[in-house]
Structure formats: C-alpha cells, structure tokens
Amino acid sequence: MEKKKKLLILTGGGDCPGLNAVIRAACKRARKEKNWEVYGSIEAFNGVFSEPTELVKLTRKRTAGIHVRGGTILKTTNKGNPTNFPMPQPDGSIKMIDRTEELVKRIKSLGFDAVINIGGDGSQRISEALYKKGLSVVGVPKTIDNDLSATDMTFGFQTAVQIATDSFDKLVTTAESHDRVMIMEVMGRDAGWIALHTAIAGGAEICLIPEIPYDINKLVKKINSRYVNGQGFVNIVIAEGAKPKDGTITSSVGEKGSEHVRLGGVAYQLSQQLKKAGCTAEIRETVLGHVQRGGSPTAFDRVLASLFGVKAFELVLEGNFGRMVALKNNQITSVTLEEATREYNIVSKGGPLVKAAKGLGIIFGD
C-alpha cells in the first residue's frame, strides 16, 4: 500500500474573511488525489513549536461548509515570526531569535512533504526564508489592505471595503441630519486602498491616506465651503496610518512579542487638529477597527480564496515550491516568493483611482 503524503496548512498574521475558503479549497482538491492527508497548524507556526504540537487533521467533516465563515478555524497570530521569534527570558524580558532551521527540521521530522502558508507580506517573507532553508512551501496571499504588488487582488480586501462602505453610508445620513462633520477611521497601516475605495464608493468629501500627507488648513477650507449659515455636512474617511505634513502617525507601543506598533485613534487626533485650525462645525468620530476583519466573506472573496486554495495545492502536486499563488490579468497564476515580497503595493499619488477621486471632488489635503 502506497504511503500517504502529508500536507501542512497554516494561517498567519491578521485574520480576514476568506481564510477558511482557502483551507477548504486546498483540502477538497487534495482529497481528489486519494494519497494525501492534510493537517493544520494552530496559530501559524506556533502549533509546530508547541510542546506537545498543536496540529489538527483537516478531515472532510472539519472543513465542510467553512467557506462562508469569517476568521480562520486554525486561528492565527502576528507574534510567531520564526525569523524573529519572541523568547521569554528568566528576567521577564523578551529576546528575539531566529528559529527557522529548528522549524524546518521539526516540520520534516513530523513527516510533512509540503506546507501551504496563507498570509500577507510578513508571512510570505517567512515563507521565503523557510524555502531557502529547504522547506517545500507554497504561499497564498492574504491581506485586507491589498498591499501585495505581485497579485492584482488579495482576498479579504473586497469584504473589508464592503463593510467600511456600509458603515460609511450610515454615517452620511446622520451627518446630514445634524449638520456635522463625520470622521470614519478605517484600517490601512501603510497603504490607503480601503480608505480610497470606501471614499469613492460612499461619496466622501475628504479622503486621507498614508501615501499623501495632508495640510490641515486645506481640510478646514474644504469643510467651511460646505457650510452656509451653519448648515451643511462633511464626511471624511481616514486610514489609520494617515498623517499630517508636519506630524507623525498616531500610534502606541505594541504588545509584547509583536513586531509592530499599534495604530488607531487617528480619527480623534484629526478631530482635535481641525478644531485647533478653526473648524467650528460639530465633529463626531467613528473607528471601525476590527469590524473590517470579521464576518462572512463576500461572494467575490469566496471565489478568489477558493481559486487560490485549489491552485496552491496544484503547485504542491507539481513540486513547484518557493512560489506564491497570484491573480494576474484575471488569471490564477503564481510568482516566486522573492517577487511576491519585493515591492509593497501602495496607492500611487498620480494613479487612476486618485485622479478619479479628485475628479469627483474628493480632496486629500495635498
């Protein structure tokens, strides 16, 4: 009897709608080959490092119907980077060490023939590092920020934009009813795609993104132009990583073991800046936060995630490792992990979306 091959699937970084659809699709495609068993690692590679290991067999029953669910049945973390792993010390401090060689040995000793790593920019850099150490790995791009340049679209992004737009639509009516300025803060650490798409879809007057530092006086001028005898309203979308021309992003220290500072609260900072610069209108702030990451994925994201999952396993089947699945010109293809992580996908100041937004009367404060 032929020995069954073993595939390990994991999800890393922030969660997003569509992760479960990728897991399900890869498992369903693997089952068609008869000689593959698929397992999942809990909380990215932490499941492999754990003593005892936290691995689950991804059976037909466990993965049935999960494509409609948000989040990930395998759980996830942004604190388990094996290239820079947080190790608690006796004195209570945290020391960051490289555990990639140890990780590759562990995965191989557990009998796995291949790994599918589902995650964003950081996760695919980990995939590349592990591939160079001899791991048979395939990457699947995941991020609500749509900040991977090697793929035209990442799953989760469209769902996040839909959630943000639905929320924005509700703020427009209350802004108009009370003659207020409404500021809605969305996610976007370094890339303003969610904010920009939401601003266009929702009909915002002002859109503030990390790529275009804003002049607060230009924002006040725009707001004042919308008010006559105290009546009028303005709706603003701001990405969490946006900043004024003469300032910095709003952030706080991240949690122990995290490589990132914690963003959030820029809506309140902007509110104070506007008041200080002479804005007399009433201002209210809404921070969407992790609402954008939750809930059931849209049909588009379910389809894209499913296509990615099938393609990822087919790359495994071909022995075509060291690559990431990608959407290019409406085709599901793949790129090298090196190419996948080479360039960050940010909003171009002179790109078609920004030009169209400005044509619609949206200002960026530049």
Description of the molecule:
This protein is of the alpha/beta class and 366 residues long. It has 12 helices and 15 strands. Strand 4 and strand 5 (94-97) form a beta hairpin. The chain is elongated, with a radius of gyration of 22 Å.
Order of helices and strands: EHEHEHEEHEHEHEHEHEEEHEHEEHH
Radius of gyration: 22 Å
Task: Give unreliable regions as ranges.
Answer: none
Give me the number of helical elements.
12
**Class from secondary-structure proportions:** alpha/beta
Largest sheet: 7 strands, mixed
Compose a concise summary of this entry.
With 366 residues, the protein is α/β, with parallel strands linked by helices. The protein has helices at residues 19-31, 46-49, 60-63, 100-109, 121-132, 157-178, 193-202, 216-225, 266-276, 299-318, 337-340, 352-359, and strands at 5-11, 36-41, 55-57, 85-88, 94-97, 114-119, 137-141, 181-186, 206-208, 234-239, 251-252, 262-263, 283-287, 323-328, 331-336.
Topology readout:
Layout: E1 5-11, H1 19-31, E2 36-41, H2 46-49, E3 55-57, H3 60-63, E4 85-88, E5 94-97, H4 100-109, E6 114-119, H5 121-132, E7 137-141, H6 157-178, E8 181-186, H7 193-202, E9 206-208, H8 216-225, E10 234-239, E11 251-252, E12 262-263, H9 266-276, E13 283-287, H10 299-318, E14 323-328, E15 331-336, H11 337-340, H12 352-359
Parallel strand pairs: 1-2, 1-6, 6-7, 7-14, 8-10, 8-13, 9-10
Antiparallel strand pairs: 2-3, 4-5, 11-12, 14-15
